[in-house]
């Protein structure tokens, strides 16, 4: 591997805005100082599919989220999105 990102999977959230199962589990989800994980949330598409108004072009189209983990910990990555801002944090 040459340090370039690798797409591991694509998932859709349910009506609650959550994935029905963990995206990565067991040996797939590796911690480490030099291992970064990236999520790309397609916020404008999701809003349009829900029938919400979206500017053209959307102010927030995608939300990239880069993070690292240490040890064997579960990660819950909540994302709160409005047409003009977003917020995320490490959930429990």
Strand-helix topology:
Blueprint: E1 37-41, H1 43-49, E2 63-67, E3 79-81, E4 86-88
Key terms for this structure?
4 strands; mainly beta; 92 residues; single chain; two-stranded antiparallel ribbon; 1 helix; two-stranded antiparallel sheet; globular
Describe the 3D structure.
The chain is mostly beta strands and 92 residues long. It has a domain at 36-88. It is built from 1 helix and 4 strands; from the N terminus they run E-H-E-E-E. The chain has one helix at 43-49; strands spanning 37-41, 63-67, 79-81, 86-88. A two-stranded antiparallel ribbon has the order 1-2. The protein has a two-stranded antiparallel sheet with strand order 3-4. A hairpin with a 4-residue loop joins strand 3 (79-81) and strand 4. The chain is globular. The model has no long low-confidence stretch (mean pLDDT 82).
The averaged pLDDT comes out at 82
Percent of residues in β-strands: 15-25%
- Please summarize the sheet with the most strands: 2 strands, antiparallel
Tell the overall outline.
globular
Note poorly predicted spans. Answer: none
Strand order of the largest sheet: 1-2
**Number of E-type strands:** 4
The level of helicity is: under 10%
N-to-C SSE string, H for helix and E for strand? EHEEE
Distance between the termini: 32 Å
Number of helices: 1
* Alpha-beta classification: mainly beta
Radius of gyration in whole Å, from Cα? 15 Å
């Amino acid at each position: 591997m040459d340090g370039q990102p690798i797409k591991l999977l694509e998932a859709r959230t349910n009506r609650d805005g959550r994935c029905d199962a963990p995206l990565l589990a067991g040996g797939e989800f590796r911690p480490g100082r030099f291992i970064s994980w990236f999520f790309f949330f397609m916020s404008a598409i999701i809003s349009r599919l829900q029938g919400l108004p979206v500017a053209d072009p959307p102010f927030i189209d995608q939300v990239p989220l880069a993070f690292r983990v240490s040890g064997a910990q579960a990660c819950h990555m909540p994302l709160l999105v409005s047409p003009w801002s977003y917020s995320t944090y490490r959930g429990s």
